[in-house]
């Protein structure tokens, strides 16, 4: 009988490892394969050091106090096993469990799990009711009570947030032209509201069905001033959001950053580690979407923008994230932003190369620039000469840098604002000439040249004068970006501000 039981356990290990819920060669796959093999060999315990060195390739001097990889991978395996037994493995008679506090697998008959009232066990089943057991019952009862109270409080806050609030309770509104009914969801986050660098409030995760929350250990996220937004996500092979919306047109922004796969991440891999579909109200938005490839790297902020979004007849926007590839990792999303618009045209993008926002003479809000890599910000003591908006020329980004500006399908006009503070001040204060020929650089958009050997001082005819350059008929690349690159030729490239405005209608309504 024991041999029959061991054969069933071995078969369940093989079914899990060949199911596709773990990418071949990934850390979770190696971890689970290793602990299953040790269990079948008769091991009674395993420690973090042994697993890290023998299964995950860590050095012999591995210190679990400094590196939490084993605990992180164990948590990830438990989440994926739970999801597996709810769906693909729902008909299995036996369930493989990695109990909390242990790294060796436990094999539990499904009927026993059902008797315990647990859809997916994550702790060993125990027998007997001693004093410690009753203490645990009381403790977990209190935890459940506190969690329920917190959930009710958070739901009440969320409902209240959907109602009009007194102005004094809102973050500062920097532009009277900005719609107030905006929705921002920080996917996978259970923390309190997160306020970004512009005063926009992102609510904790809500309105979802299925999937699991995931939080990455803090690391640098490229192309963003808001790394916190990209360190949590909701992931799963099939999950959805049902978001209540008032009738009308909306711009939808979905945010991603690959923090699990890639050269610098725990599961390694690279392009094609994930490929999944996204739909809105049953109409496709993205097919075989690879977020790592889309962002051109791991740990890199990425956004996709869609216009023509409207609620379904039931008054909700139904977003679905689904992967149909057996050997690919789960779908995920880091943030969801929904902004009201009056037509199907994308809202204008106005970025200033500064750490603070400003409002121009036309009451347009200019946000601190985003989705940029390279260069550095320099604020100047005085503005360049400009008849209408001199404050737009007070600060600059200089160096060798690029913007990956997320836009919806369509055609765009980009206006760039330039002034030369460095050579302008030098020329004016030292009588060292006009600065002409001191700074030359190129500007490209998706590989096409917009400016070649651009000389700000030559174009303006003198020091510390502002100039605008406008470019029409720009189209996003296949990744939905205007990738605008500033390349030094002589000295550094520089930019004060950039505006992107839609020229034509966008995608069909969803």
Can you give a write-up of this model?
It is a single chain. This protein is an alpha+beta fold and 510 residues long. It folds into four domains: 2-116; 128-163; 179-341, Galactose-binding lectin (Jelly Rolls), CATH 2.60.120.430; 349-502, Galactose-binding domain-like (Jelly Rolls, Sandwich). Helices cover 22% and strands 31% of the residues. β11 and β12 form a beta hairpin. It is elongated and about 90 Å long.
Pick out its properties.
510 residues, alpha+beta, Jelly Rolls, six-stranded mixed β-sheet, 28 strands, disordered C terminus
* Uncertain parts: 116-134, 155-180, 505-510
Number of helices: 9
Global geometry: elongated
Report how far apart the termini are: 58 Å
CATH class of the largest domain: Mainly Beta
For the record, the count of structural domains works out to 4
Main sheet? Answer: 6 strands, mixed
User: Radius of gyration from the CA trace?
Assistant: 27 Å
Helix- and strand-based class?
alpha+beta
CATH homologous superfamily caption of the largest domain? Galactose-binding lectin
Helix content: 10-25%
- Give me the side-by-side strand order of the main sheet: 18-19-17-28-22-25
Strand content: 25-35%
CATH architecture of the largest domain: Sandwich
Average predicted confidence as pLDDT = 83
Q: What is the CATH fold-level name of the largest domain?
A: Jelly Rolls
């Amino acid at each position: 009988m024991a041999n029959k039981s061991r054969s069933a356990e071995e078969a369940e290990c093989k079914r899990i490892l060949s199911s596709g819920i773990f990418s071949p060669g990934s850390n979770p796959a190696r971890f689970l394969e290793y602990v299953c093999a040790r269990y079948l060999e008769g091991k009674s315990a395993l420690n973090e050091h042994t697993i890290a060195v023998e299964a995950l390739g860590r050095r012999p001097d591995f210190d679990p106090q400094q590196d939490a990889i084993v605990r992180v991978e164990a948590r990830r395996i438990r989440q994926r096993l739970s999801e597996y037994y709810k769906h693909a493995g729902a008909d299995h008679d036996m369930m493989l469990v990695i109990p909390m506090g242990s790294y060796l697998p436990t094999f539990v008959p499904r009927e026993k799990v059902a008797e315990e009232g647990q859809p997916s066990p994550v702790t060993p089943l125990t027998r007997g009711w001693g004093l410690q057991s009753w203490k645990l019952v009381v403790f977990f009862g209190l935890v459940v009570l506190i969690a329920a109270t917190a959930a009710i409080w958070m739901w009440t806050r969320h409902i209240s947030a959907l109602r009009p609030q007194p102005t004094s309770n809102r973050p500062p509104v920097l532009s009277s032209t900005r719609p107030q009914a905006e929705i921002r969801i920080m996917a996978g986050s259970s923390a309190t509201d997160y306020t970004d660098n512009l005063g926009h409030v992102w609510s904790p995760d809500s309105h979802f069905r299925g999937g699991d929350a995931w939080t990455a250990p803090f690391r640098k996220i490229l192309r963003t001033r808001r790394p916190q937004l990209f360190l949590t996500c909701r992931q799963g092979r099939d999950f959805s959001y049902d978001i209540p919306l008032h009738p009308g047109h909306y711009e939808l922004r979905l945010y991603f950053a690959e923090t699990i796969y890639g050269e610098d991440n725990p599961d390694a891999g690279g392009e094609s580690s994930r490929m999944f579909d996204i739909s809105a109200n049953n109409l496709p938005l993205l097919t075989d979407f690879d977020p790592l490839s889309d962002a051109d790297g791991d740990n890199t902020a990425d956004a996709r923008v869609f216009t023509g979004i409207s609620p379904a007849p039931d008054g909700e926007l139904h977003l679905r994230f689904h992967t149909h590839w057996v050997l690919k990792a789960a779908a995920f999303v880091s943030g969801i932003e929904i902004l009201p618009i009056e037509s199907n045209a994308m809202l204008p993008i106005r970025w200033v190369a500064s750490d603070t926002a400003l409002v121009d003479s036309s009451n347009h809000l200019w946000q601190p620039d985003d989705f940029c890599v390279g260069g550095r910000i320099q604020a100047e003591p005085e503005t360049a000469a400009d008849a209408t908006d001199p404050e737009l020329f007070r600060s600059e980004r200089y160096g060798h840098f690029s913007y990956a500006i997320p836009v919806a399908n369509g055609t765009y006009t980009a206006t760039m604002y330039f002034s030369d503070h460095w050579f302008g001040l030098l020329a004016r204060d030292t009588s060292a000439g006009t600065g002409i020929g001191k700074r030359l650089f190129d500007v490209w958009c998706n590989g096409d040249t917009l400016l070649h050997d651009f000389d700000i001082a030559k174009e303006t005819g003198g020091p510390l004068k502002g100039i605008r350059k406008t470019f029409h008929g720009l189209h996003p690349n296949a990744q939905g970006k205007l990738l605008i690159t500033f390349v030094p030729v002589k000295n550094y490239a520089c930019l004060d501000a950039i505006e992107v405005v839609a020229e034509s209608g966008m995608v069909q309504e969803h």
